[in-house]
């Protein structure tokens, strides 16, 4: 290549890069100012659809989900039919579609899947579930036609492994009922059945054709690859040369545990992040479990990276109960931290600080998700980085010790609030045991306590009357985050 060609290519590349950056900026602007507001108004929170969805149990939560699911199902049905002339061809097509749909299900790291697709955990889990159901439907079509044509002979190796694969699929579907009550058992059963399904399918598909081999290899590679990435992430986060591994210490506050973690490898922490935590000292099985918790508070080093983080844990019946029963208040324990994950890492949800007015509603332990946003907004305000002029938090206590678990952080926040931007209103229902009078507390009396149940609609309407700029409403009113 002569020098003038190199010269032209270099200049053309620089010009192309500038144009690409401009386009990327335009897309981002369009997304933030037009596409996302339109999506929120007409799809995510479409009022007419919300009332229908609430009354019909199996309908998806938002309109976008319904549209995507309709597109997915109708598209698959079309592929089921195109070019299919007889029943054996229909059975083969269904088998191909079952195998093809199986591939994305083997991406075994939910948090990374959420990160790559930029969707919420619940949407990711719905996508996973819908694809799983499609695999089962295709397998049913395939199996029904084959059995009707050939009968079922379990002495035949192909039939036997096909039957085993069907049992695995049914188990995968049914074991979902364990998810809420026996999460760890569900997880192990789900993974075990998914792996055994691959083995059964490998034996069932005979002769293995080029495309079926490729699809099976893709399943194995996705599973192995995502597992490996997870192992590398955990090692990276927990092992740093010359530094101690992550250490945790616990403070019990009634029925809530404050977990303090010292991080060997700090990172710049953002509101909305969570980590997956394992503390082996909680019990032998705890080494193989990791549980998600929101980062409620953090302390930075001089470079602005979080060196220590705090979590608020509400004990349930498994790992979290063992934390409370087996670990000693104030003592240090080895911890394994995996993360960070969460909305802040998706980069598609817009910034809370872009809104003039932020209104948060929460109940009980849900405060863990609200505090980090207030912290970040107040810090951003001091650094001149956010537009927010008013922040209101309305929090209804669920248990007697809710307030004491978060008190120090709330008081710290109001004392940082030099411009009186932050308003905290706590509802302390009379049904809770510990008495608390209606009063004002905290620096400049900025925390107001009312001893009654919250009237959420009234609070929202009152807030809307004082609206400054665009108002963002954050929160979920139930005991779970
Ligand atoms: C994104 C996210 C953030 C969360 N943040 C907090 C928080 O800041 N503070 C807090 O107290 N709780 C939080 N939780 C809930 C917390 O993860 C569970 O309470 C905890 O894992 C229960 O552990 P356990 O063994 O005691 O559960 P169990 O008593 O066995 O089950 C209680 C509930 O927790 C669910 N659960 C159990 N293990 C897991 C797991 N590994 N992953 C997901 N769900 C599980 C079960 O399905 C069940 O619904 C969060 C959950 C999620 C999904």
TrEMBL record:
Q: Does the keyword Ion transport apply?
A: yes
Q: Where does the protein end up?
A: Membrane
FAD-binding FR-type domain mapped to chain residues: 237-347
The superkingdom of the source organism is Eukaryota
InterPro entries from the UniProt entry: FAD-bd_8 (IPR013112), FAD-bd_FR_type (IPR017927), Fe3_Rdtase_TM_dom (IPR013130), Fe_red_NAD-bd_6 (IPR013121), Ferric/Cupric_Reductase (IPR051410), FNR_nucleotide-bd (IPR039261)
Work out whether the entry's keyword set contains Glycoprotein: no
Segments spanning the bilayer are 6-24, 131-148, 160-178, 185-202, 214-236
According to Swiss-Prot or TrEMBL, what is its membrane topology? Answer: Multi-pass membrane protein
PROSITE patterns, alphabetically?
Answer: FAD_FR
Record's SUPFAM superfamilies? Answer: Ferredoxin reductase-like, C-terminal NADP-linked domain
Going by the UniProt record, its keywords in alphabetical order are: Electron transport, Ion transport, Membrane, Oxidoreductase, Transmembrane, Transmembrane helix, Transport
Q: Which family does it belong to?
A: Belongs to the ferric reductase (FRE) family.
What is the name listed in the Swiss-Prot or TrEMBL entry for this protein?
Answer: FAD-binding FR-type domain-containing protein
Species: Paecilomyces lecythidis
